[in-house]
Write a structure and sequence with these properties.
single chain, TIM Barrel, five-stranded mixed beta sheet, 13 helices, 13 strands, glycoprotein, glycerophosphodiester phosphodiesterase activity, glycerophosphodiester phosphodiesterase
Length: 378
Amino acid sequence: MTSVPGTVSSILLLLLVECAARPFYPLPSRRNDRSKQPLQTFRPYNIAHRGSSGEFPEETASAYKRAIEEGADFIETDILASKDGILICFHDLTLDATTDIAQHKKFESRKRTYEVQGKNITGYFTIDFTLEELKSLRVNQRSPFRDQQYNGAPRVVGIYPEIKNPVFINQHVKWPIGKKFEDKFVDTLKKYGYKGTYLSKQWLKQPAFIQSFAPTSLIYISHLTDLPKILLIDDATTPTQDTNQSYWEITSNSYFDFIKDYVVGIGPWKDSIVPASNNYLQTPTDLVTRSHAYNLQVHPFTCRNENVFLHFNFSQDPYNEYDYWIKKIGVDGLFTDFTGSLHHYQEWTNPFSMGEESASKLLDKIAYMISKFRNSYN
């Protein structure tokens, strides 16, 4: 599923990024000021899905760096664990699709079949490899949450880590003193200063959302940290990871009334908010309206610029899609693979936004007008 923390290394998370909010830029005389601009909170959040993954390989240093440069408010990443209990930034439970593991004969015996959420999956699982072995597969390690300044960002950028498949990880990875995946996850966040309730002074300094598809994991974590949490919600056919509850159960009013004490919002698959038929959007559900009634934010996933992912309603224009979700549906944030395009949309449509170049030009015009006035007056 971001400190003066900054980017990350390849597929292991650098879950800290103290970068920043873009709308308000310093005057020319203050442009060398080292202070970061604050996180923007006056419009829906631009959440970089595994970094700028539409332009660079997902969950890599390049993808995170690009997303920050393009205006992301939060860097989203998935957190798993190696055999020796090291947190890694990686989306898939298996290495098959994203590494050349099949070409490493020495690891042939590591192929396993495990039950994951009621289904048998066969492959090379991250939980069967130590960190050093993962590095030999070009999984370049850098400790998640490592404190590192990203010098190119003039604003605070948050992190949005997902605690990935916690039930499965806890079954196969053991930490000392009886700790769980969730304990390791939160301990690491605390180590690097991530804490504070939503919009508190501490949170605004180092913003972070914790996300998961596992409700009981989020409830457990809520007793360990006051950081805001987001319950991810899959499509209507997929039950929850840990409680086996149906989509209809976890989107009911009674469940929202229960879960609002533990989370600040939900992250639903966008087609569960507005169903589609033959690639055309149908009548929106009341999911967003009901969520807001329980003071829950809604951060749908995932917007993508490629035509194959755009519903016909948007005429192959991603900016039309952003406009639809933000203005008509009224979401509070969007996961996107193309951080730059969402940033451009929000800058173009928000009257309070002004790029540094535009601000500089405006100041130059004002200075010119003043000088003309003085000259004519004199």
